[in-house]
Amino acid sequence: MGDEVEEPEPEEPEEPEEPEANSKLADAREKEELRGKEAFQRGDYEEAVKAWTASLRSVKYLLEKNLYAHNAEHQKEVEKMDVRFNLNLAMAHIRMREFGKAIEFADNALKRDPKNTVALYRKSLALMEVLNFPEAMVCLQQFLEISPDSKSAQEMLQRARYHEKKGELRAKKIAKRIFGSQASSSGTSGASFGASGLLQRLRQICCRRRKED
């Protein structure tokens, strides 16, 4: 889970031309985006989050006010910016080891663009860190349906399958000790039920601890 994996960076769409009334808002957004990029590059992820959050807020304002509803091309570009800032924030929170927030921002990007491979990949990275291997496998399979030749996604999927299987076996051993008498009287159903519940409980504890760290 500590492996560094290279991933494709999203293409940055051109900024749409904006009405004069919104030019100051556009200038502020561009400055915040640049500030976030510079902060991220020097490893100041908290500052990057602040800057990109401000940029995302201005984009959401444009979308909520439907300022480009009359121009489909410009509207599409603003929606792309919304995806981009959510992706940036997902990556920043991964670097800060705030995986729950990273998943949230990746999900925001996927709501706008369900087949966005960068969002799927970053969500998978965060899910692996919180030991949610089943959902990570789902995301990676979706990724590979779009980009089947991605070696990094293939390798991560193999790791997810390995750790999920390993976790199940470990949970079954623990459950057998705890629910041994129940398993003896009813075949393996008691141990299987106990293992499933135990594995789920361990995941919940792990997720909570990582969020608190």
From TrEMBL:
Gene3D superfamilies this protein is in?
Tetratricopeptide repeat domain
Q: What is its EC number?
A: 5.2.1.8
Q: Which GO terms describe its molecular function?
A: peptidyl-prolyl cis-trans isomerase activity
Q: Where are the TPR repeats?
A: 83-116
Q: Where is the composition biased (Acidic residues)?
A: 1-20
Keyword Isomerase, does the record have it? yes
Keywords, comma-separated and alphabetical: Isomerase, Rotamase, TPR repeat
Give the span(s) annotated as Disordered. Answer: 1-39
> What catalytic activity does the UniProt entry give for this protein?
[protein]-peptidylproline (omega=180) = [protein]-peptidylproline (omega=0)
Report the PROSITE patterns cross-referenced here. TPR
Compositionally biased residues, Basic and acidic residues: 26-39
* Pfam families associated with the record: TPR_8
Stored PANTHER family? PEPTIDYLPROLYL ISOMERASE (PTHR46512:SF9)
Under which name does UniProt file this protein?
A: peptidylprolyl isomerase
Natural source organism: Effrenium voratum
